Each structure stands twice: as structure tokens, then as C-alpha cells.
Amino acid sequence: MDNPDFTMYKLLILLFLGLQGRVNASCTEKNIAREGTATQTDTYVDPIKNISLSAARAIDGIKHGRHYEFDFSHTITGGPAAWWLLTLPRVCAICQITVYNRYDAPQRINGVKIWVGVGLTGGNYDGAELIGTITYQSGTYLYDFSDLTVKGSSIQIQGGTSVLSLAEVEVFADSE
Ligand SMILES: [Ca+2]
After folding, report:
1. 102 CA → ligand 1 middle, Å
2. CATH code where residue 153 lies
3. What pTM value is reported for the model?
């Protein structure tokens, strides 16, 4: 029989390994969206400031979504034909996607769909998994899709009933 000190030592080792396992299995706090490349159907240019509201503005780390901060993406195309596509550098075990809405004209988010797939091209959802559809709620600024267990290298957001305009998209993956 082990002496009490050795038994305690073994218990501490087991506790440490157990905690490590929990950490490794959890959703990392790191947003990997900014490691990817964002594209969209087409791009609206603000006619006053001549600023292009590119797809990349939805992964620029700025989440305000206010019109004159130009920190959001904005297509010209409206409805389900509009898309915003994030291509990650590798297939990831995605556990959470957070979509930050525009502060101005927030109702445009209504009906927007979030898809995850592998190697998707713009407007193509073949083999992709539908993660969810956003129903606009007044006063709600961000929409979380958590506890996901889906592998993919592409996050594609499909337009709802309006143009597709996103303040920010964050993607979190399980630690490998
Ligand atoms: Ca942004």
C-alpha cells in the first residue's frame, strides 16, 4: 500500500490530467475568424465617403456596426442570393459562431442563415450544414450559436430578406 503522501501525489496528477482534458475539450476563447479570408456576393460603396463596405470589414475586430464607422460588410444584392463567405486556412472543429448585427437598420439581419461546410464557394451550399436562421429581435445586438459540433473550413452566411450587412462574425473552435 502506498504511503499517504504518495497517494496524495497520484491524486493530484489525476486531477491535473482531468483538468487538462476538460480544457482541451472546450471551446477556445480565441476567435479564429480573423485567420480567414472573407468574400461576398458584391460590395456596396458608401456614396458620400466613397468607402467600400467589403466582406473583410466583418472580421476587422470592430463590432460597433454604426453607419459612419464603416466597420461592417454590406452587399448590393439582397435576399437569399446574397452571401458572405469566410474561408479558414484549415478544417476546424467549430463550437461557436457569433454574429454581431448592425446598430443602424438592424432588422436587415432577419432571416439570415448560417452554414458551415468544407471548401464552399460563394452561393454554393452543397454538403453544408445549416447551423441556424436568425430571427431579428429588437434590442438584440449579437446572435450566438453555441455548443456546436461541426467540422468545416467555410462559414457561409446567406442573406435573409434584405441586403446582407454584418458588423462582425466571430468563430471559435475546439482546441486540438
Ligand atoms: Ca467589423
Report:
1. 9
2. 2.60.120.260
3. 0.85
Q: Furthest-apart CA pair in the chain: how many Å?
A: 81
74-to-2, 3, 52, 122, 139 alpha-carbon distances in Å: 67, 68, 9, 15, 21
| Spatial separation of the C-alpha atoms in residues 88 and 96, rounded to whole Å | 14
In a domain, 12, yes or no: no
Cα(121) to centroid(ligand 1), Å = 22
Asked, for residue 70, whether it belongs to a domain, the answer is yes
60-109: pLDDT as tens digits: 999 999 988 999 999 999 999 999 999 999 999 999 999 999 999 999 99
Q: Does 111 map to a domain?
A: yes
Residue 24: inside a domain: no
pLDDT tens by residue, 12-37:
544 444 444 334 457 888 999 999 99
CA of 7 to the centre of ligand 1 (A): 53
What protein residues have CB closer than 5 angstroms to ion ligand 1? 60, 62, 71, 168
- Domain range for 146: 29-174
